[in-house]
Every structure is written in structure tokens, then in C-alpha cells.
Amino acid sequence: MNDDFEKNYIDVIKGLRTLKSIKTSDNFRKRFTTLIIPNLPTSNTFRPLYFLPFRLAFIIIILILVSGTGLVMAADKSHPGNLLYPVKKAVEKLQLTITNNPSGKTTLHMNNADKRVDELEDSIKQSGNREVENITSDYESQVKDAVRESHKVDNNKEDVKSMIDQKLEDQSHKLEDIKKVAPTESHVSIEKAIETSKTGQEEINQLQQKKPEEKSDNPNTNNLSTQNPLENPIHQD
Amino acid sequence: MFSWLKNKLQNGASDQLLIQKIQHEDKEAFGLLYLRYIDSIYRYIYFRMGQDKPVAEDLSEIVFLKAWKSIYQLKKDNLNFRSWLYTIAHNTCVDHFRQSRNQVKLEENTVHTDLDFEKKLINEENISDLQHALMRLTDEQKQVITMKYIEEMSNEEISKILNKSEDAIRAIQHRGLKKLRILIKK
């Protein structure tokens, strides 16, 4: 679009158009096209991970990892009835699913039983009778599963059985203490849990009394028994 | 035969096609775009830098190196390479002015500094009265007059590059032409 004022300056404008003849020299252009262009850095050298899609994907992955880890850690401290408690249960289930060896599974079940006792204690302190039945019922199934899995554990692995025995002993005492402060209506459930614990102990004691295979025949026995299953519950038998 | 045909086709290729190739690291395509725009960018910088040839050449090279480095940022659906290149050239000149504080100032009070350039060029041949007059314009007037009447760009394009309204661009043009007329008559 021409502006009206331009009509008054046509001579100046014509003169300006002639300045288009000012150009770079051939040598200058040649130098750039033959020397500089072939040596230009390729894009990969100046935009490695900063290219937008990669950067976005990288940020999303980091967010998922960070939030996922944080979620699991937060869920581990949750109690029945909390929003994150299902996550805690799902993680426990996942750990049991990916653990193949019986001693590892036994240890995980006993750790879960420990957690239920702690949850029971907290639950009674905070809300009296609520969730007691669910927690004790879960405790019982964890103990039963631990004892059942312990039957599959190598007879030479006495430390696993000793660990169950010790844990059940501790849990019984703790449950007795909890019962003392718990409301009367939850006594039945807690007593049932204590009974399960004692039954489990008896069963484990019977297993321990069975004569283990002769250790002298197997030179590796001592090495295996020194392994602490609590430290690495996913190790192979 | 085939290379001749290839060159013929590439020379006629649109900026958009060449940019797509450059975004896939095609240096030959970048060379073609360079040859297409180097003179235009050079003239813009040359007049803005007080018609100092070595400085204009150096800065023109910098503009194209910057363009190569950031061409992947150009969006495929909004490719106006010339405007984008001029924006780089504008920013490069601003950076240069900042770096050499003692040389040229950007606003109306630059006249006396431009006179230094004029003195330097006065003895050179082939410098027209119009070129001398151009040096006496303000930096803003030089830019707009160069883009509008030498490079024949639209007011819309100039307003986008300089980030000013079209009315402001028109006013600068008017003042610039008026001043040129007076200076030439002198």
C-alpha cells in the first residue's frame, strides 16, 4: 500500500531504490559458502537433550519416578482407612508375587504381620475399636501363610524358623499389651490373633524339633545358614 | 546434467522447503538460503552501521551463524524466514551497539557520531549524496527507510520486525523521507 506522502518524495524513493545495487563481494560470499557452511556444527552438537519433545519426555519420566517413589513411601506409613492404605497393601502383594523362594515369602509374611500389630496398636490409640477386626484378621492370615511357607523351607535353614518363632513370641506379648488398653468389644478379635500366634509358634517348634538333615554331609550348610533372610528376603533357597 | 537440474530445482525452491531441509541438517539448502538473503541482510546492516563495510560483513556472518543455530525453532506452520532473519539482524546490531558504547548511539543524538563516519567516507569515491544523507538519519529512520524503500518490505512486515505499530512505521518513514529531501538539497 502506497501512502499519500510518498508522492511528494518520488525522486528520493527512486534514488533509494538504486542503492539496491550495493552488494557483498564475490570473495566474501565464496568464503562463507566454501569455508564456513561446510564446517557448521550439526544440530546434534547444539541441541542434544534440549529439543522440546525429549525434554518433555524426560521431565515426565522424572516426575513419575519421583511421585511414584514418594507415593510408596507415604503409603508405607498409612493405616487402615487411610487413602493410601490400598497402595501399601498393593505393594505388599507385589513383593510377595515377585518373591519365589519360600524363605523370602515367609520373611515377608512375618514382616507384614509385624506391620499389622503396629497398625493395631495405632488404631486403638487413635480410634478405639475401628478397623480392629480387619487388622487382626489380616494378621492371622499373614501368620498362617508364614507358617505354611515355612514348611517348604529347606530343613537346614533353621534361622528362618527361629526368626518366625522369635517374631511370633514378640507379637504375642505385644498383642497382650494392646489388649490391656483396648476397648472390651475388641478383646475377642485380639484374643483370636494371640491364639493364632501361639498356634503358629507351636507348629514352628514342632518343625524345629524334627531332626534336620545331617549337616556334616553337606559342607555348604554352614554358609547357607549364616545368611540372614531379613536382610534379603528375595534370595534364592 | 542431473546436477544442473538439481541446482535449477533447488534455486527455485521455496523458503519453506529449504527450511525443512535445513531442519534436517542440509547444509546445501542453508547455502542456497544464504545466497538468497545475504545481500539484503548486508545492506540493512551496512546502512545501519554507518556504511562501514568490514563491520557490516562481520555482522552479516554472525546473523547467518545465529540463524543456523536456531533455525529448528522456526515453526513449520508459520514460516516467514525473511522477517525472522531481519529480527536476528536487528538484535545483532543492537548487541553490537551495546558492545561498542563509544561508537554509535541509537537515538536522535547519534548525528555527531555519524558525522565521524561521514568524514571517513567523504574522500571515498562512488558515495552518493543520498548515501551521505542516509548517514544523517536516526538509527530508527535508517532501519525503516532501508527496509521499506531499498528492500521493498511491507509496513506490516517492518512493524513485526521492529515491534512497532504500522502507524508508527508510517510516521518514521515520513520523517525520514522529509529529512533526506532537506539533506540532499543542502
Care to describe what's here?
The complex is a heterodimer of chains A (237) and B (186). Chain A is mainly α and 237 residues long. In chain A, 68% of the residues lie in helices and 0% in strands. Chain B is an all-alpha fold and 186 residues long. Helix content of chain B is 73%, strand content 0%. Chain B has 10 helices and no strands. Classes of the chains: A mainly alpha (237), B mainly alpha (186).
Give me a quick take on this structure.
Chain A is mostly helical. Helix content of chain A is 68%, strand content 0%.
Radius of gyration of chain B, whole Å:
18 Å
Helix content of chain B: over 70%
> What is the helix tally of chain B?
10
* Category from helices, strands and their pairing of chain A: mainly alpha
The percentage helix of chain A is: 55-70%
**Helix/strand order of chain B:** HHHHHHHHHH
Shape of chain B: globular
Beta-sheet strand percentage of chain B? under 5%
Mean pLDDT of chain A: 79
